[in-house]
Write a sequence for this structure.
C-alpha cells in the first residue's frame, strides 16, 4: 500500500513536472525577451554616451524632418563660418567642425562592407582627441583630400591595411588611400558601424560635396564652465535657425531614437510571442490539472467525508498551483537569462547590429517573470479546482475512479453560437476594414472554437474510423475509440495546439497574401525592362550619376531614378520619393485619378489617392514641404495617382529634392531598353555600370522577389518564435497521454495478455496522439486561415488573398508527425508496463 | 525433454521443476518451488490452494504472462523460456485463451470485437461462421454490437470465454472466472467451460478458491507454499472443501 501511494505520488510529481515545464518555457521566453531588451537598451545608452563623452555642447541646424536616429538624414548642413562665432563665446575651450554622411567603404575584393542595419558612415576626422570618440592606433590623421582613416573593424573585415587604395561610395565612387586605422573606446568600432574619415576639407569635397558646409560643431567647455551654461551662451550668439544642445542631450536623443525605431518594436514583437507561448502554457496546465484532479476524485471525496469543506479543497488545489507556479517560474527566470544570452549571441552573429556588453538583468524583469508565471498557473488551475471541489462525498464509495467527460450539450451549442457570431463579426469587420469589430469577432471565434471543439471529436473519429475499416488495423481502431471516449479531454488537449497552429497559419496566410498582392502590384506597375536596385534592408544608396551613365548606353531607351528621403510633408515627418515626374510613367504604369504628370513646374508634386483623401488634397492644393536644410517650399499638387508599391505616396521632382539635400542618392533606377535589343544583351550592358555603383540588376520577377524577400525572412523568424508555443502544446499532449496510460493500465495489461505486442501498444498510443494532433492542427488551420483572411482584408485594401496550399499541407503533416513524436515517451512507458501489475490491479 | 507418462493423455501445457522467486534469488519469496505438472489435453484442471500458495503465479508462468526463475514452461511442445516478448505475445494470441476474474473486456470495443480481438491483433480474419456459432452457443448472438458497459456481469464473462475459445487455442487459462458473479451466472460460466471441454475438446486450466467451481473440473491440483501437495480426479465440492480445510 505504501509502495502504491509512493508510486502514485511519483507519477503525480512527474505530471506536475511536465505541466511545470510549460510554465518554465513560457516564463523563460518572457524573461529572455525582457532581459534582451534591457541589455540592448543599456548597451546603446552606454555607446551613445561614449560617442559624445568629451563633447559639452553641439551646434547644429535647428530644423529637422524627423528623429530617425540617422543624423545625416534628418538634418541639413550649417555654414562652417559659424565656427568663428562659437569660438569667440566666453567659456569655450575648443570647438571643431564635423561632417557626417553616408559612405560605403569597399573591401579589398571590391564588395561593400557592413550594412544590413548598422549605418555606413563617412565624414571628417576630428583633430582634437578630446572631442573624437575614435583614436588612432595605426598611421596618422588624414591630410590630403583622398586620404582616410577607417575603423579597425572595417579594416579587418575588408582586409585593408595602411597604404591600401580602395573606394568609398558616397554614393558616387571616391578613390581613397588608407592612412590610419582607429578604434572606438578600445574596440573595433561603434558597434558594427563602418566609419571612413576624411580630413574636413576632404569630407566637404567628397562626402557632402558642399564647400564650407558642415554637419555639426563640437565644443568643449573651459574648466569651471558647466555644459548647460555654455550652451545658453552659445545659443545666444547663434542665428535663430541654428541650435545648440548639450552633449548629454544628444546622447539621450540618439538613445530615444533607437528605442523608438528598433528596441520598442523588437520588445513588443518578442513579448507578443512570449504571450502566445504563455497562453498555450495556460491551456496545457489547465488540462493537466483537470485530469490529475479527476484521478484524485476519490481522494478528494474522502476528504469531504471526513469533513473538509469545498473551500478547503479549492484552497489546497490553489496552494498546489501557487507552489508549482513559483518553482516553475523561478526555473523559468534562470532559463530566461540563458535565452537572453542565446538571443544576444544570435544577434551578434547574424545581425551584427548590436553593441557588445554583458547582460543587464533588472529586478523588474525577474519580478514580471515570477509574477506572470505564477499568476498564469494559478489562473489555469482555478476552473479545475472549482470542479474538483464540487465532488460529492459519496463519490469516494463508488468504484469508478474517473468520470467520463462527454461533450457538454449546452457548451457545444453556446460554442457553436459564438463561432457563428464570431465568423459574422470578423468577416463583416474585415470587409468594412473596421479593425476593432474584426478583432472582437476573432476573439469570439477563438473562444467559440475552444468551447465547441469537443463536438468535433466524434465526427473526426468517425471519418478516421471509416478510413481505418478499409485498411483494417486494430491499433487504429483502438486509438480512435480511445480518442472519442472522452471527447472533452481529447479536445482540451488539442486546444493548446489549436492556438499554436492557428497563429502559425494566420501568419503564413497573411504573409502569402501580402506577397501575392505585392507581386500583383509589381506585375501591373513594372513597365520597365530592368531595374537597378538596392537591397531592401541593406541601406545602400545609388549615386545620382548612375542614371546618367545608364542613359548613355546605346541599349537603353530611357532610365528613371527613384530616390527616397525624409521630409516634412505639410508639417508631418514622412518619406517622399524624388524622381523625374515627366518620365516616370515610361517605366512605371501609373493610373492617374486626376491632373497630369506631363511637363511639371519646378514646385509640382504628385500624391497617391490614399494620401490625398486622408489629407483632403486635390489637384491644385498647396502643400508645404520641409526639407532637411531647413527650407520649406510651397508645392502644388499636379496629379493624384492610384497608390502602388513601386512608388511612394508623395512624388517630388528630383531637381527640387536635390536643391535642398546634402547627399543626393537614388534607391532604384528603372531602365527601358531600346526596341529590338534583346533582354540578355541589355542586361549584359547594364550590369557592369550598375555594379560599379553597387546596384543589383533585376528583371520584373527578380524585382518582385526582392520586394517580398524581407517578408519571407520575417516569416522565418516568426516560425522560430512560434516553435516554442508548439513545443509547449506537444508537451501538453505527451502529458495527457501519460495520464491516459496511467488510467488505462488494466486495459493495456489485458490487451497484452490477450496477445498485443509491445509494438502494437506503442502504435495505439502513437495513433491516438496523431488523432489529437490532427484535431488541433485542423481546427487551428481553419481558424488561422480564416483569421488570416480577416486580417489581410482588414489592413489591405488590395486584392491578393491567397491560401498557400503547399505550406498548409506541410503544417498539417508537421502536426501529425509532431503528434507521433509527442507519443514516443508515453508509448514506450505503456509498452514496458509490467503486465501482471496491470491485471492484478483488478 | 521428459516424455509424458503413457497412461495419461498428452499434455497441452506443462511445467518442469518450475521455480519462481520474487526479489532476491536466495532470500526472496519462493512463490513456486520446484513444481512439475502436466495439464492433459481436452481436460479441465482446477488449481486450488490457500492464498499465497502460488496458484496465480503458476497460472501466469504457464501462460507466458510471467517468466520462471528456473525450470521449464511448455505450451504444447513450445518452451516458453527464451521467447522474446514479441514472440510470447504472438503465442498468447494464437495458442492461449484467457478468462480473468473482473476486468476482461476492452471497454471501447463492442462485444463482437472483443471476441475477435486475438484475430484483430494478428491482422487475421476470423471464420465468421465459427464466431457466430460460438456466440450462438454462448447466448450472445444478439449482443454482438453492445459495448461491455451495456452487458451484465455474466454476459461480460461469457464474452470473455468466447474470446478465449475463438482461436481454438492449445489451452484456456481461467483466473477465478466466477469470482465476481452471482451463483446463477457462475453456474452458467462453468457450464460453458464444461461444454467447451466435452464438445470442443478444449483444454482448460482454472485457478479458483471456490470448491463448487473446482468440482466442475475433471481434476484438481492442490498447491501449498509453492508446491503441488495433492491431486484429485473427478472431484466433488465436498471432497475439495475437506481437502482445502486440511491445507489451511
Amino acid at each position: 500500500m505504501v509502495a502504491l501511494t509512493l508510486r502514485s505520488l511519483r507519477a503525480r510529481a512527474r505530471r506536475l513536472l511536465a505541466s511545470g515545464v510549460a510554465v518554465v518555457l513560457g516564463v523563460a521566453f518572457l524573461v529572455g525577451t525582457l532581459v534582451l531588451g534591457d541589455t540592448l537598451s543599456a548597451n546603446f545608452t552606454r555607446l551613445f554616451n561614449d560617442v559624445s563623452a568629451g563633447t559639452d555642447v553641439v551646434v547644429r541646424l535647428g530644423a529637422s524632418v524627423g528623429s530617425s536616429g540617422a543624423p545625416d538624414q534628418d538634418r541639413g548642413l550649417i555654414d562652417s563660418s559659424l565656427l568663428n562665432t562659437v569660438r569667440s563665446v566666453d567659456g569655450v575651450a575648443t570647438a571643431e567642425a564635423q561632417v557626417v554622411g553616408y559612405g560605403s567603404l569597399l573591401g579589398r575584393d571590391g564588395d561593400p562592407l557592413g550594412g544590413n542595419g548598422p549605418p555606413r558612415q563617412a565624414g571628417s576626422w576630428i583633430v582634437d582627441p578630446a572631442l573624437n570618440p575614435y583614436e588612432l592606433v595605426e598611421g596618422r590623421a588624414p591630410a590630403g583630400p583622398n586620404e582616410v582613416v577607417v575603423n579597425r573593424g572595417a579594416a579587418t573585415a575588408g582586409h585593408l591595411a595602411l597604404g591600401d587604395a580602395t573606394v568609398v561610395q558616397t554614393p558616387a565612387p571616391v578613390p581613397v588611400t588608407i592612412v590610419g586605422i582607429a578604434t572606438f573606446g578600445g574596440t573595433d568600432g561603434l558597434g558594427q558601424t563602418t566609419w571612413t574619415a576624411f580630413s574636413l576639407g576632404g569630407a566637404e569635397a567628397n562626402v557632402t560635396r558642399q564647400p564650407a558646409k558642415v554637419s555639426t560643431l563640437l565644443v568643449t567647455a573651459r574648466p569651471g564652465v558647466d555644459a548647460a551654461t555654455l550652451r545658453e551662451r552659445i545659443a545666444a550668439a547663434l542665428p535663430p535657425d541654428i541650435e545648440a544642445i548639450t552633449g548629454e542631450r544628444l546622447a539621450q536623443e540618439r538613445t530615444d531614437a533607437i528605442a523608438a525605431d528598433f528596441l520598442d518594436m523588437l520588445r513588443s514583437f518578442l513579448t507578443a510571442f512570449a504571450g502566445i507561448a504563455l497562453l498555450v502554457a495556460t491551456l496545457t496546465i489547465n488540462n493537466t490539472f483537470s485530469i490529475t484532479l479527476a484521478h484524485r476524485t476519490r481522494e478528494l471525496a474522502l476528504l469531504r467525508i471526513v469533513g473538509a469543506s469545498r473551500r478547503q479543497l479549492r484552497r489546497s488545489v490553489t496552494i498546489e498551483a501557487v507552489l508549482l507556479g513559483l518553482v516553475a517560474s523561478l526555473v523559468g527566470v534562470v532559463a530566461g537569462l540563458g535565452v537572453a544570452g542565446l538571443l544576444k549571441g544570435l544577434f551578434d552573429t547574424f545581425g551584427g547590429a548590436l553593441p557588445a556588453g554583458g547582460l543587464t538583468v533588472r529586478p523588474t524583469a525577474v519580478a514580471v517573470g515570477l509574477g506572470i508565471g505564477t499568476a498564469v498557473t494559478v489562473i489555469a488551475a482555478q476552473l479545475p479546482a472549482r470542479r474538483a471541489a464540487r465532488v460529492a462525498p459519496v463519490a469516494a464509495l463508488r468504484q469508478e475512479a474517473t468520470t467520463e467527460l462527454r461533450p457538454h450539450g449546452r457548451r457545444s451549442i453556446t460554442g457553436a453560437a459564438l463561432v457563428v457570431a464570431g465568423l459574422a463579426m470578423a468577416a463583416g469587420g474585415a470587409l468594412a476594414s473596421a479593425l476593432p469589430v474584426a478583432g472582437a469577432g476573432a476573439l469570439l471565434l477563438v473562444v467559440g472554437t475552444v468551447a465547441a471543439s469537443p463536438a468535433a471529436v466524434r465526427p473526426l473519429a468517425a471519418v478516421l474510423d471509416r478510413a481505418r475499416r478499409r485498411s483494417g488495423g486494430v491499433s487504429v481502431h483502438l486509438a480512435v475509440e480511445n480518442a472519442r471516449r472522452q471527447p472533452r479531454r481529447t479536445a482540451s488537449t488539442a486546444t493548446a495546439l489549436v492556438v499554436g497552429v492557428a497563429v502559425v497559419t494566420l501568419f503564413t496566410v497573411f504573409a502569402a497574401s501580402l506577397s501575392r498582392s505585392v507581386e500583383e502590384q509589381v506585375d501591373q506597375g513594372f513597365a520597365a525592362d530592368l531595374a537597378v536596385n538596392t537591397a531592401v534592408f541593406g541601406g545602400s544608396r545609388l549615386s545620382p550619376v548612375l542614371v546618367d551613365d545608364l542613359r548613355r548606353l546605346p541599349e537603353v531607351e530611357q532610365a528613371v531614378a527613384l530616390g527616397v528621403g525624409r521630409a516634412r510633408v505639410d508639417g508631418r515627418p514622412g518619406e517622399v520619393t524624388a524622381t523625374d515626374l515627366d518620365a516616370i510613367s515610361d517605366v512605371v504604369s501609373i493610373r492617374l485619378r486626376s491632373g497630369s504628370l506631363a511637363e511639371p513646374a519646378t514646385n509640382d508634386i504628385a500624391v497617391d489617392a490614399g494620401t490625398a483623401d486622408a489629407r483632403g488634397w486635390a489637384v491644385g492644393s498647396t502643400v508645404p514641404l520641409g526639407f532637411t536644410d531647413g527650407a520649406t517650399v510651397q508645392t502644388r499638387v499636379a496629379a493624384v495617382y492610384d497608390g502602388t508599391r513601386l512608388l511612394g505616396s508623395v512624388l517630388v521632382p528630383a531637381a527640387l529634392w536635390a536643391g535642398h539635400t546634402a547627399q543626393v542618392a537614388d534607391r532604384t533606377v528603372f531602365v527601358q531598353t531600346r526596341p529590338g535589343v534583346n533582354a540578355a544583351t541589355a542586361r549584359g550592358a547594364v550590369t557592369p555600370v550598375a555594379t560599379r555603383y553597387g546596384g543589383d540588376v533585376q528583371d520584373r520577377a527578380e524585382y518582385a522577389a526582392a520586394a517580398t524577400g524581407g517578408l519571407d525572412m520575417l516569416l522565418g523568424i516568426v516560425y522560430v518564435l512560434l516553435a516554442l508555443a508548439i513545443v509547449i502544446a506537444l508537451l501538453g499532449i505527451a502529458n495527457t497521454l501519460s495520464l491516459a496510460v496511467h488510467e488505462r493500465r488494466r486495459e493495456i495489461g489485458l490487451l497484452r495478455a490477450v496477445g498485443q505486442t509491445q509494438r502494437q501498444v506503442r502504435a495505439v498510443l502513437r495513433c491516438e496522439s496523431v488523432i489529437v494532433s490532427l484535431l488541433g492542427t485542423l481546427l487551428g488551420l481553419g481558424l488561422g486561415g480564416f483569421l488570416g483572411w480577416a486580417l489581410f482584408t482588414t489592413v489591405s485594401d488590395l486584392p491578393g488573398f491567397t491560401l498557400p496550399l503547399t505550406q498548409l499541407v506541410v503544417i498539417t503533416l508537421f502536426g501529425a508527425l509532431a503528434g507521433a513524436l509527442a507519443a514516443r515517451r508515453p508509448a514506450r512507458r505503456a509498452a514496458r508496463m509490467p503486465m501482471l501489475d496491470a491485471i492484478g490491479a483488478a | 525433454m521428459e516424455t509424458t507418462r503413457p497412461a495419461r493423455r498428452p499434455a497441452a501445457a506443462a511445467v518442469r521443476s518450475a521455480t519462481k522467486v520474487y526479489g532476491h534469488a536466495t532470500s526472496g519469496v519462493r512463490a513456486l518451488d520446484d513444481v512439475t505438472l502436466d495439464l492433459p489435453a481436452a481436460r479441465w484442471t482446477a488449481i486450488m490452494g490457500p492464498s499465497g500458495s502460488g496458484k496465480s503465479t503458476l497460472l501466469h508462468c504457464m501462460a507466458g504472462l510471467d517468466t520462471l526463475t528456473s525450470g521449464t514452461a511448455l505450451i504444447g511442445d513450445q518452451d516458453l523460456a527464451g521467447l522474446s516478448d514479441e514472440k510470447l505475445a504472438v503465442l498468447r494470441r494464437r495458442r492461449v485463451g484467457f478468462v480473468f476474474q473482473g476486468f476482461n473486456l476492452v471497454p471501447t470495443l463492442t462485444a463482437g470485437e472483443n471476441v475477435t480481438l486475438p484475430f484483430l491483433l494478428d491482422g487475421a480474419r476470423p471464420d465468421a461462421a465459427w464466431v457466430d456459432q460460438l456466440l450462438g452457443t454462448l447466448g450472445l448472438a444478439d449482443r454482438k454490437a453492445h459495448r461491455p458497459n451495456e452487458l451484465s456481469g455474466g454476459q461480460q464473462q461469457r464474452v470473455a470465454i468466447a474470446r478465449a475459445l475463438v482461436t481454438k487455442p492449445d489451452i484456456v487459462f481461467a483466473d477465478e472466472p466466477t469470482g465476481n458473479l452471482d451463483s446463477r451466472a457462475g453456474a452458467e460460466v462453468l457450464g460453458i467451460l464444461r461444454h467447451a471441454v466435452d464438445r470442443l475438446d478444449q483444454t482448460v486450466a482454472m485457478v479458483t478458491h471456490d470448491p463448487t467451481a473446482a468440482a466442475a473440473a475433471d481434476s484438481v491440483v492442490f498447491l501449498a507454499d509453492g508446491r503441488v501437495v495433492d491431486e484429485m480426479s473427478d472431484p466433488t465440492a465436498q471432497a475439495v472443501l475437506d481437502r482445502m480445510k486440511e491445507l489451511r
